[in-house]
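Justification of computing resources. Each target in the renewal requires a structure prediction run like the one illustrated here; the chain below, 590 residues long, is used simply to show the kind of job we budget for.
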Amino acid sequence: MMSITLTAAQQVARQAVTEQISRLVHGVYVYASMLVVLAWTTPFAVDHPRVYWGCAACMASGAAVRLALRLFWERWRGAFLETMLLTAVGLTSAPSGLLYLCSLLYYGFEDWTFTVLLIWTVGGASGSMVSFALTLRLLVLHVVLLLVPALGLGLWQGDTRGITFAIGTMVLVVFLLTQGVWLNRAYLKQLEDRAMEEARLRELELAKAAAEAANVAKSLFLANMSHEIRTPMHVVMGMAQVVLAGELPAESRENVEAIHGASETLLHVLNEILDFSKVEAGKVELERAPIGLRRMLEELRLTVRPLATLKGLPLEWTVEDGVPEHVTGDAVRLRQVLMNLLGNAVKFTAAGAVGLRVAREPGGEALRFTVTDSGIGIPVDKQKLIFEAFAQADGSVTRRFGGTGLGLAISAKLVALMGGSLTVRSEVGKGSEFWFAVCLPESAAASVEVPEQAAARERTGLRLLLAEDNAVSQRVAVALLGKRGHHVTVVANGVAAIAAWEREEFDALLMDNQMPEMGGLEAVREIREREAKLNRRRTPAVMLTASAMRGDRERFLDGGVDGYLAKPFRAEELYAAIAEATAPPGCATQ
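Resulting structure tokens:
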């Protein structure tokens, strides 16, 4: 607030000076008109030429000073600027007052010349109240030089007309000064309000720019952290999968499975943080595509059942008859919400049961999804808190059950994007019920490939080129691909990948993106250009990368890549990506 006040005060002073000087320049026309009218309608210039032309010269000097102020005032500061302002006013107000005084001396109260000057002086004095209200010192100087000499002459004459004239002039002086003070305060208050508003707007603009810069920095930080975390996680998960695929003693298998499970949990936490960042920034866009809803729900049940079985919890799974087989919506986000709710239900339930019920809402295309559990429950006063980021209903929950506190916040925002609202009803010690209803229009049969079809379509013994600079990641990929009988040529960067592609034909290219000398996307673009020039067969390319932020997939696909897989990935996902990229055109997945 202090910075706003100081800036506003400086702005007020600057604007006041600017407007005051502008008004002084405009006042030159008033004084010029006075001389013209006086010479045209009265004999003053003829009767008293020295006084008339002396005053005219003085006024011209004042006009020159006012013009100089308008042009050069920003170069002048402090006492010199104030002196120039007083000089400019004095050189015009003093001769005006002198002319007024002389007309009274020369012609008396009844003469036409005095009447003209009286009318002009009173009108000019009233106008000056507005012109000089920004600077009270100038107003006082102008009024004193213009009216006080004539006032003194009226008192000096001492007769009835003189005293009456002096009293009237005194009233005018007092009126001008009091009204000038009031106008001065009003003008300054207006300027101060304007300056404060401008200062606030500037601070808001600066704050907005800082927030945008911080948001960009946050996005870059998240992208870098995502990449740096995903690469070693890929190694851990990949090597665990390679080891688990071989023969192991029972105890060793349990240990490796624990490592693999922990890495899966860590990947889930990382994905939650990235998802929340995307949702918070408003960068999540829902797809509208056919969904095999009942098949998706069955796959979800098969995923959740082992988790529930480990805790001895039965799954109460109900999909009512009115639920269509196929709908239109975002399958990935719908599955994410349901998996989060079901995962929480299993996590927070020690005994009883966990259930999912899907039913059609009466009179429309909306479907209602309800997840129930008989777990620890949520206090009524905390039921809104759980939908906030990084929040738990009880601090001890984090210690007992773990989690980031982001799952429900993400789910609530995703449901809102779908046009619904995530609601909870819960009682401590008796369990919870979460539900939401979203519009999922029934659609024609979705083209969904079942695992058996994917397995039948997969080709073995492919010649693959792997571009990967991390030695351990190379070992992971070679081991996983070798189990499918693929022959893998390994290079460490994009330059070597292009050279290897030129030497021999490959069935597919597997490219990491961030590599020394040349990245994977740059290498693929170069290969696409050479394919066109040489009229060579297009080699499918799959990007295997730790770049998993919003827009990365689209950026790679637009760059000539045929498939995208974010690290860390499961062996089945790698096999499926290669199968899809190398499938004949008629067998590609929809």
